[in-house]
Amino acid sequence: MIAVEGYAAQSAKAPLAPWSFERRDVGPKDVLIDIAFCGVCHSDIHQARDEWGGSRFPMVPGHEIVGHVTAIGSQVDQFKVGDRAGVGCFVDSCRVCVNCKADLEQFCVKGMSGTYNGFEQDKVTPTFGGYSTRIVVDQKYVLHLPEQLELAAVAPLLCAGITTWSPLRHWNIGKGHKVGIVGLGGLGHMGVKFASAFGAETWVLTTSPGKADDAARLGAVGVVVSKDAADMEKHAGSFDFLLSTISAPYDINAYLGLLKVDGTMVTVGAPERPLDLHLFSLIMGRKSIGGSLIGGIKETQEMLDYCGEHGIVSDVEVIPAEKINEAYERMLKSDVRYRFSIDLKSMAA
Amino acid sequence: MIAVEGYAAQSAKAPLAPWSFERRDVGPKDVLIDIAFCGVCHSDIHQARDEWGGSRFPMVPGHEIVGHVTAIGSQVDQFKVGDRAGVGCFVDSCRVCVNCKADLEQFCVKGMSGTYNGFEQDKVTPTFGGYSTRIVVDQKYVLHLPEQLELAAVAPLLCAGITTWSPLRHWNIGKGHKVGIVGLGGLGHMGVKFASAFGAETWVLTTSPGKADDAARLGAVGVVVSKDAADMEKHAGSFDFLLSTISAPYDINAYLGLLKVDGTMVTVGAPERPLDLHLFSLIMGRKSIGGSLIGGIKETQEMLDYCGEHGIVSDVEVIPAEKINEAYERMLKSDVRYRFSIDLKSMAA
Description:
The structure is a homodimer.
Chain A: H1 5-13, E1 30-39, H2 42-48, E2 65-72, E3 84-87, E4 90-92, H3 98-101, E5 113-114, E6 134-138, H4 151-154, H5 160-170, E7 178-182, H6 186-197, E8 201-206, H7 212-218, E9 222-225, H8 229-234, E10 239-244, H9 252-256, E11 259-267, E12 275-277, H10 280-283, E13 288-291, H11 297-310, E14 316-320, H12 324-332, E15 339-343, H13 345-348
Parallel strand pairs in A: 7-8, 7-10, 8-9, 10-11, 11-13, 14-15
Antiparallel strand pairs in A: 1-2, 1-6, 1-15, 2-3, 4-5
């Protein structure tokens, strides 16, 4: 377990009781995963620092987990020892509600079990994530990872990947669409890769004109500089679809002005404060704003298979475990292209 | 022309130049309509009182116009003298843009010609509406009205009707859907009639529990009292679709909480001030908010034909022209069930 700052702070306040982060033995349907890499998601910072409230400590962040199966339960039939395996943002759900049955476990009526800072389905037992060397998860919530892809770069697909894949697929984005990915960070860079792979004319909307080269390399046809009123005006009423990854408050009406009639803007970024929404921005042009949250297990597997076929991974900077707090600081300055991936082998050293 | 308050005020400031409100002779493609009734829309008040800014005076409000054809141009082939005829919120558009060609003239790229307080396509000649005895309109922008319906009660279909019909149709509302109509006024009461006619389980969301009987009479299965937290909680996560007619600022997040996964809320009401939108309200459950604006000519005709077949009209209170300012005051107190319809014959008296 890596001592992230929030954890360290909490530890100082309340010394830890004897505690196991491998709380669960390998049950009949479980797989034990030896974690190779874990991606670092912006939400790790929010939760480690208790910026969303309700954080529980001690905490082991991390929900972009990849590694290898080192043990399986007696009833496990989907994995064998030695297989690559991945775990995303949740490790369980009720399995019987309307949403679970529709492969939308992320919207489980009784609440999914977040991979960390959450509870098992008993609503009592805390969950611990991927900034660790091992994790035990029911095979139903474990993903198969393509053999041909670099593991460190696969890790972020489990959150940043599926988070952008899911809305692009749900809203049927592809050839003939002019699509804008708003914000070029961990999520945004995956959005650009997917949207362009699906055949859409993909643009990056960014405050940083300096990202134009990177945007092009990732598959975009160009950038729209959102701070540049003339640039925004040039693209007014021209987009079919916008995918926003912005997590700070912003003027959503300005982006709605970029949509054509019947255009849709979907957000996967969630600013803490509410945005000012002018309903006229939607009424004029029958426009919509939607939200999307990660994706279900079935959909996540489809994404991973697609990535395997098309050679798509995240752009990562691999770091050893001890660099995590530094990585957080750099993320807050957008100083990473585009995702940190922790090499968990560094913890054994 | 009826002297509404805004007009009277402006007239006092700037005496009128010699002016004709029947500015246009009947051209080759025009029909001259003898106006029988004109519905009174809330937007008439906003514009007559210049509450949206940019009002032009003298003004003749009114865009829910029904009457009979009394003259036709040489090339008119869709109407003959004596026909019933209606005019809605616009009287022209560019006819060649992508939206006009898609029968979405309300989103004309060059701007539709609003029936009043707008300009003809020359962008110079002002338009004057239905608080009058006659109007000349190109046949392409004139609707056929079912013979069997009471004219006074047909008038509001031209705005309140199509405004609620269009989103319910566009979002394919029908059997199997739990639908909420938010606000039971001129628009809302038409929304209830249409949604229930389409087979949806229709609820009225209102701040007034006293409207339960009326809601049932109009076709609703029940009301949800939006000020009653327990009632709102009872319906949390249960609606497929909400259609909001609210035109004052409100907590949109509370309504989004009523939607199930993949649910959609569409607004046709436009509060002047922006609303506080928490993006989490959309993200949790992949929900959407959309907007909708009246409807195109083709769609309006479809609605009128449907109303003829199903005997659907607006609930109206017919008033003589001289009661218009009193009607405005009563509308502001929601003291009308559910639309005023001006009897224009009263102007001849």
